[in-house]
Amino acid sequence: MVEGKFSEIRGWAAFEPGIKVKPWSYRPRPLGDNDVEIKIEYSGICGSDLHTIKGEWGPPQLPAIVGHEIVGRVVAKGDGVAGLAEGDLVGVGAQVYACLKDSCETCSRGLDPHCPDMVFTYNDNYADGKQAQGGYSEAVRVDANYTFKIPAAIDPVHAPPLMCAGVTVFCPMLKHDIKQGDRVGIVGIGGLGHLAIQFASALGAHVTAFSHSPNKREECMALGATAFVDTSDEKQVEGARQSLTHLFVASNAPANQYNEFIKWMKIGGAIVMLAVPPGKMSFSASEFTGSEVSLSGSLVGGVKTLRKTLDFAAEHGIKPIIERFPMDQVNEALARVDSGRIRYRAVLENPRD
Ligand SMILES: [Zn+2]
Ligand SMILES: [Zn+2]
């Protein structure tokens, strides 16, 4: 068996529910035949990281190193790994394992994020019981199938947000076959939304950005939006009625706002939830029979979609707007994300040797 370079991995872990993390180290699981060890250069901060360590999605397994927008270099690989070499620049997203077998009902349909054996990048356990630890650290060991080469056209520091936020917005756009002639709305212009504008626009759609921050208008237009609706302005919201074929909800809008969103849809339109809003939704059936609007959710994308996301972003020059923080300022970065002040994604950087 191949030994990795790291017998101990140092990172920043949450020890109690909240947004504070502290230095901590753990002994990585043995480097399996199909595993790679990655020395991390950049790690994006995703909203899911905060939901997890705050305990908003249930009690996390502690200590927990979160972070699932990982970019770094391969420094070791198992004997069975083909197609990746030491020194390759690679990314890891929200998932680090699925069986990917033809006999698997979900994997065979390209739905590997729903594989019964799937392992999330953190706050989850491998089949051997070992806890998966994420990217706010110096290194990580993951399955080679979930290690993606970063195309040369993408600046490495711009790659982390594509690994989760990017694929999360692009996957349902592919599923809904977004194309020229579609009238796409994006609500919530943050980490997900500012990428969603770029992907939808590159697919040829007419894109309307919805935000309660009118000062984001110019930036949205520069990213490719064709129209902007200030949701704090009733008149503008009224003007958006029945204007959309698709609406991607990237904000943590309270569940009751969905009753308003339905009114923005053309007959037969589709609303897709990308974020996980707190609270329960309540609708009357007639809102759907009357509008023929459909409502669906989307998790992250699988192996194939992640590859497509990276290639499409490289081809169309899609890149996140980021704020950079040295890894040892992770607590400052988390506080800034938590307060909603980040424009639009935080990326942590490890020191170079
Ligand atoms: Zn994420
Ligand atoms: Zn499977």
From TrEMBL:
Q: Which UniProt keywords apply?
A: Metal-binding, Oxidoreductase, Zinc
User: Per its UniProt record, what PROSITE patterns does this chain match?
Assistant: ADH_ZINC, D_2_HYDROXYACID_DH_1
Segments traversing the membrane = none
Q: Which Pfam families match?
A: ADH_N, ADH_zinc_N
Cofactor dependence: Zn(2+)
Q: Could you state a single Gene Ontology molecular function term?
A: oxidoreductase activity, acting on the CH-OH group of donors, NAD or NADP as acceptor
Q: Provide the Enoyl reductase (ER) domain boundaries.
A: 18-348
Which family does the entry's similarity section mention?
Answer: Belongs to the zinc-containing alcohol dehydrogenase family.
- Put simply, this protein is called Enoyl reductase (ER) domain-containing protein
**Originating organism:** Coemansia javaensis
Origin organism lineage: Eukaryota, Fungi, Fungi incertae sedis, Zoopagomycota, Kickxellomycotina
